[in-house]
Design brief:
mainly alpha; Cytochrome Bc1 Complex, Chain D, domain 2; 2 domains; two-stranded antiparallel sheet; about 25% helix
């Protein structure tokens, strides 16, 4: 684990290794039973469930190093990883927009409008299955997907190693980060994944309240926190310090996207999508996998109705909640306290291509 010291850890601490085990990430509903008043806990008991971790987990097969973080950061912001040479990972995962893009649906190669909203990569070190449908099993697996996808970054992967190898500084940096391995699709993915694991939400007013500062959040937000864990039923899926259990649920959205059932052929996975983190959620609208819900208040109204569509795969936890307008306001005020004190991002200086007179510069749209 690497010690967490800021909203965007730079890889300056010593890392030790742990593996986060998976629990119930493909279930249609949470292991937590639908709550009723007889099972509600006290405010202080609920607060104990949301204590931030003190370190970042890294897998044994890709342990932390500062050299990997530095290299992965460069690759993440480098548009030359795309076939067009103008789209980077950061084009969609913009740190100014909580590592999303602020759009209802992503935009890829050739201004193609994609089928789903861009998910944040915030706190992805604690995530096991990635993408809205969970088709990627690790950050290493996920890293190469958008690069190769013809509608996203459109970079033929068989040409990517050659492309990066033509930049002398990258050859040096890969040899430092991966001694004896150099540039390969595997080391590219490992470097990007290592950097992404260091992207951690900053300390939020909610965290200060959990730590004992009673003045850190408003009385409305405190009421909202209790509702979040009880009557509003949010914590059934949005649990723990990262406000997600990683499960996949059909929450009754009316679009035709069938979600995870294409990956896991189980009836309960029809129209099921990954439960996202609520950290920094006020910075990340519009909401849901299709970006069709404009505000947090509208999100709460959707759940208060018990979803927009009733079907057999609908999660049993999505049901009319009978929240009042004032109670919805309190829950939204609570969710606003989850926005962290993130520090400004300094963009990396990217390696330049060979500047000798004999070198042939790459042009936009050129693929080697």
């Amino acid at each position: 684990m690497m010690s967490i010291r800021s909203s965007w850890c730079r890889g300056l601490a010593v890392a030790t290794i742990v593996i986060v085990s998976g629990v119930g990430v493909t279930s249609a509903t949470s292991n937590t039973a639908v709550q009723n008043k007889t099972t509600w806990k006290t405010m202080d008991e609920y607060r104990k469930d949301y204590v931030r971790p003190t370190s970042i987990p890294f897998p044994t097969e890709n342990p932390y190093s500062a050299e990997k973080v530095r290299l992965g950061e460069m690759l993440f912001f480098d548009p030359r990883l795309s076939g067009s040479n103008y789209i980077s990972c950061a084009s969609c995962h913009n740190p100014s927009m909580s590592w999303g893009d602020g759009l209802p649906r992503g935009i890829g190669h050739g201004m193609t409008i994609l089928g789903r909203r861009t998910p944040t990569i915030l706190n992805s070190a604690w995530t096991e299955l990635l993408m809205w449908d969970g088709r990627k099993v690790s950050l290493e697996d996920q890293a190469m997907g958008p690069i190769a996808a013809d509608v996203e970054m459109n970079q033929p992967v068989e040409k990517l190693v050659e492309k990066l190898s033509s930049i002398e500084t990258y050859k040096v940096l890969f040899n430092i980060a991966f001694p004896g391995e150099g540039i390969s699709l595997d080391t590219i993915a490992k470097a990007i994944a290592t950097f992404e694991r260091t992207i951690v939400s900053g300390i939020a007013p909610f965290d200060r309240w959990i730590a004992g500062d009673e003045h850190a959040i408003s009385e409305s937000a405190k009421r909202g926190f209790y509702l979040f864990n009880t009557k509003a039923n949010c914590a059934t899926c949005h649990s723990g310090w990262n406000l997600t259990d990683g499960s996949f649920q059909d929450i009754g959205m009316p679009d035709a996207d069938v979600g995870r059932i294409k990956i896991l052929d189980m009836p309960r996975m029809n129209h099921a999508f990954k439960t996202p983190t609520l950290r920094d959620v006020s910075r990340r609208g519009p909401y849901m996998h299709d970006g069709s819900v404009p505000s947090l208040t509208a999100v709460m109204e959707h759940y208060n109705r018990g979803g927009a569509v009733k079907r057999e795969s609908l999660s049993e936890d999505v049901r009319p909640l009978n929240l009042t307008t004032a109670e919805i306001t309190d829950v939204v005020e609570f969710m606003k306290t989850l926005t962290g004190d993130d520090q400004p991002i300094r963009l990396p200086i990217l390696p330049m291509a060979d500047q000798s007179s004999s070198a042939k510069p790459a042009t936009v749209g050129q693929r080697k």
